[in-house]
Amino acid sequence: MRALESAGPPDGEGWVEVEMSVEAEAVAVSDLLRLGTEAEALGPAGLRRAVAGAVAVLAERYAVGF
């Protein structure tokens, strides 16, 4: 709820920037992945790398045919 309270107005493309506090990077990665393409981690850089790594693993996993 605090993230919504601190959110600014949507930009020209409809995106809203919010700040979120989480107890661990792994939790933040999980939270962001749950939002799919509707969210992007703008920082810190380590979180962006962790999300990108998780997405790369998923992309490889789902690229393999059955």
Q: Any descriptors?
A:
single chain; 66 residues; mainly alpha; 52% helix; 0% strand; globular
Number of helices: 3
Fraction in helix: 40-55%
Radius of gyration: 14 Å
Portion in beta strands: under 5%
**SS content category:** mainly alpha
Average pLDDT reading: 91
Shape: globular
Intertermini distance = 41 Å
**Largest sheet, described in full?**
none
Task: Please provide the count of β strands.
Answer: 0
InterPro entries: WCX_dom
Protein name: WCX domain-containing protein
Pfam families: WCX (PF25583)
Domain WCX: 9-55
Structure description:
The chain has a domain of 44 residues. It has 66 residues and is mostly helical. The termini are far apart. It is globular and about 45 Å long. Helix 2 packs across helix 3. It contains 3 helices and no strands. The longest helix is centred in the C-terminal third of the chain and has 19 residues. The mean pLDDT is 91. It comes from Streptomyces dysideae. InterPro entries: WCX_dom. Pfam families: WCX. This is WCX domain-containing protein.
Outline the fold blueprint.
Layout: H1 2-6, H2 25-34, H3 45-63
Helix pairs in contact: 2-3
Domain WCX: 9-55
InterPro entries: WCX_dom
Pfam family, one: WCX
Summed up:
By secondary structure, the protein is mostly helical. The chain has helices spanning about 1-5, 25-35, 45-65.
